[in-house]
Structure formats: structure tokens, C-alpha cells
Amino acid sequence: DAKTTQPTSMDCAEGRAANLPCNHSTISGNEYVYWYRQIHSQGPQYIIHGLKNNETNEMASLIITEDRKSSTLILPHATLRDTAVYYCIVTRSGSARQLTFGSGTQLTVLP
Amino acid sequence: GAVVSQHPSWVICKSGTSVKIECRSLDFQATTMFWYRQFPKKSLMLMATSNEGSKATYEQGVEKDKFLINHASLTLSTLTVTSAHPEDSSFYICSGIRNTEAFFGQGTRLTVV
Asked: Is residue B99 over pLDDT 90?
């Protein structure tokens, strides 16, 4: 699986959009970008994933650059409950699905 | 999304005793489950792959005789930490696979005293 690079931490004001970047310059053509988050002392929660097109669901939007070497997770209206560690993972969908977690980004939503 | 349930959520045990952690897929069948360990302020590290009806596959550096995995049914995998020591204190998390996607349990906080 391709390696990802994320900022260690970010702050965001409550109600504002949180934009979390991820670099994955060695991504292969058959690898997807997945985002999970982990609220303190809980298991990871799936957020969204995509291959090359931008994706949106009820939780977030995923913007993937045209060259697929980076992506941005957008939480449109961050709340205090969005404070968590966000993990960007690149992996082949349909594989055994053990996931390799990097260090992630600690997002703190400030009141 | 699919539901994966772990039990217990937390456990405290004495050094030298064994602890069993259960991971259940509540609304799907999981032929494969994964066990992760997470130390404070660190990321999740894969420990082993649990396969229904066959032996588990362990990651390098994980002692198979210490971390016993049993996956006897399509909805249950168990991790037993044998002869636990304080250095085994950690957050243990399992995941089940449904339609090639991973769904995680809520985790088990193990404290060995």
C-alpha cells in the first residue's frame, strides 16, 4: 500500500469547514483513498473513500487531485464532536482489507 | 454501516492471568477478522489476521503463543492474552470485513496490574 503523509495536528473553529490534507504521491492506479477517524478511546470509524472522482456523503466530502497524488477531506460544518484523529489510508479495495494506519491528523474543533 | 461489537470494553487483570476479548460481527458474517493493538498516543498496529476455520496469521514480532486467536464461527473471533504482564496493557481493537470493507469494534482497554 502507498504511504501517506498528513499534518500532525490542526485546529478548526466550530461551525467552520475543516480541510484535512493528505499526500500520497506514490499511489498506484488501482489504489483507493480511504478516510477513517478515531475519537478518543473508540475504534476507528469509516468516513469516506474514493478512487479518482470527488465523493460526498452525509459526513464529509473527499477531493482528490487530478494526478491523484494528494487529497483533502472536508468536514463542511465542524462540531465539537468531530474532534478526533483522522487517518488517510491508501489501499486496494477488494484486498484482504487489513489497514495500515499512519500517524493521522489530530483535529481539534474549538468552541 | 455494519456492526462489530467487542466485549469487554475495558478489563483490569492481575499480572500472570489470562484475559479473553471477544469480537462479534452482529449483522454480517466475517470469514476474516483483524486484531490491532494501540498504545497511548500511537497509531493502530496490526497484530494478526483471524481466519474462520483455520489458524490465525500473526504479524512479525507478535507472539502467537501469548496472543491466542480463535475464530470458530463466522460471527465470533476471540483474542486471549495469556500470562498477561503490565507491558501488555493497551487498547485492543478488532475489525470485521463485509463486502471488502473494514468495520471496527469499539475497542477493549486492557490494564494489567
From this structure: no
- Is A98's CB within 8 Å of B45's CB? no
Contact (Cβ atoms closer than 8 angstroms) between residue B29 and residue B95: no
Structure confidence by residue, pLDDT tens digits, A53-66: 899 999 999 999 99
Q: Which residue of B has its CA nearest to A103?
A: B43
Contact call for B100 and A97, based on CB within 8 A: yes
Q: Which of A99, A102, A103 is opposite residue B102, by nearest beta carbon? A: A99
From the CA atom positions of chain B, what is the Rg in Å? 13
| Residue whose C-alpha is closest to residue A62's, from A54, A70, A18 | A54
Which residues are within 8 A (CB) of B110 and not within 5 positions of it... i.e. 6 or more apart? Answer: B10, B11, B13, B19, B21, B81, B84, B88, B89, B90, B91, B92
Q: Which of A41, A97, A101 sits opposite B44 (nearest CB)?
A: A101
- Render pLDDT for A42-56 as a digit per residue (tens, 0 to 9): 999 999 999 998 999
Distance (Å, rounded) from C-alpha B84 to C-alpha B111? 9
**Which of the four pLDDT bands, split at 50, 70 and 90, describes residue B72?**
confident
Mean pLDDT of B13-41: 94
CA distance A45 to A97: 15
Kindly give the pairing relationship between strand B76-81 and strand B19-25: antiparallel
